[in-house]
C-alpha cells in the first residue's frame, strides 16, 4: 500500500530550484534511504514534506490525503513527523517535558501523556535522564531525545535527517539498532544520511538526489553501482 | 528567549555537572542576593536614613502593595515577550482600556467594582486573542521584530484616542468599593490596596502554575523555547500565540480592575505603567515570570521609599537609576539566562 506519494514536487528560492520535479512513492512499512551531495535538496525535501515550507508546485499525498500546503503541526498530527540534523530541544524544559509536549497530541489527559512520554523515553533508553534539563544532554542523548519527541507522536512515517551526524562510531551502533527496532514496529522511515555503512545496512530502497533532482532510485546495491551515482556523488574512490 | 517559568525540575543524580545545573544555582542565588540587597537597603534607610520610622514603614507597605500590581502588569508583558518575542507597547493602553471597561460597568451598569473586574477579564482576553490573530500573527510568524512593535505602538495610540473621544480627558473616579483600612506594623494599608495586592499575586501565581503544571502551559513553554520545533511535534503555534497574547491582556484586565478604585482615570493613565513595566521586565529578566514578580516588588519599593528623599515624580529618577545599573551590571536581569 502506498503511504506517501510525491508528485512533481518543486521548491524555488528566488529562481534557484532547491528541489526540482521530485517524484517519490513510499510504500507502507518500507525503509527508504536518501543520499546525495551537500546541497542536493534532501533537507529541503523534508521541509516540504513536513509542511515547514510551502512548495512552489507539485503535490504531496500522505495516507490518501492531499496534504500539500498543510501547516507543520497538522502534518505532524496526521502522522508524518520529521527530526532535525541539528537537535533543537526545548532547552529550558526537562527531557520528560520535551517528550510530553509531543505526546499530548495523542493523549488528551496530562497523566496519559506523561505515561506515554515515559514509555517512549524508556524505549529510546534515556530513562536515566528523564528529569534532566534537556539542554544538558550530551550529543548522543540529544539524538535520542529528538527520536523520542518524534516517536511520542506515534508517527506512521518518520523523516530522519542525519540522526547519526556528530556521533562517534561507538555511539552510532546503538542508534542504528534503535532505528531497526522502530522500523520493525511498523513505522515507515525516510532516512537522509551520509554514513554509507548505516545507509546500506538499513535501506530497503535508496534514492540518490543531486542538484534538487532524483538521480537514481532502486535497490541500494544496484543504485550505488550506477555509474551516474558513482560519478556524481560517491567519487572515484568508491568506484 | 528564556523560559517564562524558569523550570524547577531537579537534574537526575546521574547527570554530570553541566551548564544546566550551574544555571539552576544562579536561578536561586541571584534572586536571593537581590532580596538580601533590598533588605540591607531598607535597614540602612531605617538606621541612617534620617527619616521617621513610621514614615519609612508606611512607604515600605505602600511600595510592596503597589509592587504587587506592577508585577501583574509586568507578568503579562514578559509573557508576551517571552513567548512571542513581541515588545508590546500597547500593554499600558490595554490596562487603561480595562480600567475604563470597569468604570463603565460600575457607573452605567451599577456593578460592584470587583464583579466588573471579573467581567472585564474575559473581554480583555478575547480582545488580546483577536489582536494577535488578526493583526500580529502574520508578522510574528514571518519573524519580524519591528513590525509587531509598530503595530502595538499604533494600537496603543488608537486605544488612547478612542477612549479620549468617548470619555474625554477629565479625570474620572470609579465609585468607592470597600472603604476602610487596617494597620500593618503601624502603617496604614487600605482594603482596596490590600485586595489589589492579594488579587495580583494570586493571579500571577495561578499563571505560574498554569505554565508549569498544565499541558497547555507546557505547550506555551515549548513554543517559547522553539516555535518551529513545537510546530513539528504537533503544537498549533498560531493558536498558542493568540492565546498567550490573550493571557497577557487578561493580566492587565485584572491589574486594571484592581487598581481602578484608587487611581483617577484618564485615557493616558496606563502610560506610566508601560514604562514601569518595561523597567520591571528588564530587571526581572526578559521572559521570566518569576523575575517579573520579584522585579515588580523591588520597583514598587524603590518608588515609594525613594519618594522619601525625592518627593513627587523625583522617585521615578531612582527607578531609572536602578534600571541603568541593572543594564550595566546584569543586562540579562535577575532571572534571565546569560546570553
TrEMBL record, chain A:
Pfam families: ABC_tran, BCA_ABC_TP_C. It comes from the Bacteria. One of its GO terms (cellular component) is plasma membrane. One of its GO terms (molecular function) is ATP binding. This is Branched-chain amino acid transport system ATP-binding protein. Keywords: ATP-binding, Nucleotide-binding, Transport. InterPro entries: AAA+_ATPase, ABC_AA/LPS_Transport, ABC_transporter-like_ATP-bd, BCA_ABC_TP_C, P-loop_NTPase.
From TrEMBL, chain B:
Coiled coil: none annotated. Residues 1-12 have a biased composition (Low complexity). It is found in: Cell membrane. GO terms for molecular function: transmembrane transporter activity. CDD domains: TM_PBP1_LivH_like (cd06582). The chain crosses the membrane at residues 28-49, 55-73, 80-101, 113-136, 148-167, 194-211, 240-263, 275-301, 308-329. GO terms for cellular component: plasma membrane. Residues 1-24 are annotated as: Disordered. Keywords: Amino-acid transport, Cell membrane, Membrane, Transmembrane, Transmembrane helix, Transport. Signal peptide: none annotated. It holds the Pfam family BPD_transp_2. It is a multi-pass membrane protein. GO terms for biological process: amino acid transport. Belongs to the binding-protein-dependent transport system permease family. LivHM subfamily. This is Branched-chain amino acid transport system permease protein.
Amino acid at each position: 500500500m502506498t503511504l506517501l506519494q510525491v508528485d512533481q514536487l518543486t521548491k524555488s528560492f528566488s529562481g534557484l530550484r532547491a528541489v526540482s520535479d521530485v517524484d517519490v512513492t513510499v510504500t507502507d512499512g518500507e525503509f527508504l534511504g536518501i543520499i546525495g551531495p551537500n546541497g542536493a535538496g534532501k533537507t529541503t525535501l523534508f521541509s516540504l514534506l513536513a509542511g515547514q515550507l510551502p512548495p512552489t508546485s507539485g503535490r504531496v499525498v500522505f495516507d490518501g490525503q492531499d496534504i500539500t500546503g498543510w501547516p507543520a503541526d497538522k502534518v505532524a498530527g496526521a502522522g508524518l513527523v520529521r527530526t532535525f540534523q541539528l537537535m533543537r530541544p526545548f532547552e529550558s524544559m526537562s527531557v520528560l517535558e520535551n517528550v510530553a509536549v509531543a505526546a499530548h497530541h495523542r493523549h488528551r489527559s496530562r497523566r496519559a501523556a506523561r505515561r506515554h512520554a515515559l514509555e517512549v523515553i524508556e524505549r529510546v533508553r534515556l530513562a536515566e535522564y528523564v528529569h534532566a534539563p534537556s539542554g544538558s544532554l550530551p550529543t548522543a542523548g540529544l539524538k535520542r531525545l529528538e527520536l523520542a519527541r518524534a516517536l511520542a507522536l506515534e508517527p506512521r512515517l518518520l523523516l530522519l535527517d542525519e540522526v547519526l551526524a556528530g556521533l562517534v562510531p561507538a555511539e552510532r551502533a546503538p542508534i542504528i539498532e534503535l532505528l531497526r527496532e522502530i522500523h520493525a514496529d511498523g513505522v515507515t522511515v525516510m532516512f537522509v544520511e551520509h554514513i554509507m555503512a548505516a545507509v546500506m545496512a538499513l535501506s530497503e530502497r535508496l534514492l540518490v538526489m543531486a542538484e534538487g533532482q532524483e538521480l537514481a532510485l532502486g535497490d541500494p546495491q544496484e543504485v550505488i553501482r550506477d555509474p551516474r551515482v558513482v560519478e556524481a556523488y560517491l567519487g572515484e574512490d568508491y568506484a | 528567549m528564556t523560559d517564562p517559568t524558569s523550570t524547577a525540575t531537579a537534574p537526575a543524580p546521574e547527570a554530570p555537572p553541566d551548564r544546566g545545573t550551574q544555571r539552576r544555582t544562579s536561578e536561586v542565588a541571584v534572586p536571593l542576593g537581590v532580596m538580601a540587597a533590598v533588605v540591607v537597603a531598607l535597614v540602612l534607610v531605617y538606621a541612617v536614613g534620617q527619616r521617621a520610622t513610621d514614615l519609612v514603614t508606611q512607604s515600605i507597605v505602600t511600595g510592596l502593595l503597589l509592587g504587587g500590581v506592577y508585577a501583574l502588569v509586568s507578568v503579562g508583558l514578559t509573557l508576551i515577550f517571552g513567548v512571542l518575542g513581541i515588545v508590546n507597547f500597547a500593554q499600558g493602553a490595554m490596562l487603561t482600556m480595562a480600567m475604563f471597561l470597569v468604570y463603565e460597568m460600575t457607573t452605567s451598569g451599577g456593578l460592584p467594582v470587583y464583579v466588573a473586574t471579573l467581567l472585564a477579564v474575559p473581554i480583555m482576553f478575547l480582545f488580546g486573542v483577536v489582536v494577535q490573530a488578526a493583526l500580529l500573527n502574520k508578522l510574528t510568524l514571518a519573524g519580524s521584530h519591528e513590525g509587531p512593535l509598530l503595530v502595538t505602538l499604533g494600537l496603543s495610540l488608537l486605544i488612547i484616542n478612542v477612549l479620549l473621544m468617548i470619555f474625554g480627558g477629565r479625570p474620572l473616579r470609579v465609585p468607592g468599593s470597600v472603604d476602610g483600612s487596617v494597620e500593618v506594623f503601624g502603617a496604614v494599608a487600605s482594603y482596596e490596596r490590600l485586595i489589589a495586592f492579594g488579587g495580583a499575586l494570586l493571579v500571577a501565581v495561578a499563571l505560574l502554575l498554569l505554565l508549569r503544571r498544565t499541558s497547555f502551559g507546557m505547550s506555551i513553554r515549548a513554543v517559547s523555547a522553539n516555535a518551529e520545533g513545537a510546530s513539528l511535534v504537533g503544537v498549533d503555534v498560531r493558536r498558542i500565540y493568540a492565546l498567550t497574547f490573550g493571557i497577557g491582556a487578561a493580566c492587565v484586565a485584572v491589574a486594571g480592575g484592581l487598581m481602578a478604585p484608587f487611581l483617577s482615570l484618564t485615557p493616558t493613565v496606563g502610560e506610566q505603567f508601560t514604562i514601569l513595566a518595561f523597567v520591571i521586565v528588564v530587571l526581572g529578566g526578559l521572559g521570566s515570570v518569576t523575575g517579573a514578580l520579584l522585579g515588580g516588588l523591588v520597583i514598587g519599593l524603590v518608588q515609594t521609599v525613594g519618594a522619601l528623599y525625592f518627593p513627587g515624580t523625583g522617585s521615578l529618577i531612582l527607578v531609572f537609576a536602578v534600571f541603568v545599573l541593572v543594564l550595566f551590571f546584569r543586562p540579562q536581569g535577575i532571572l534571565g539566562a546569560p546570553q
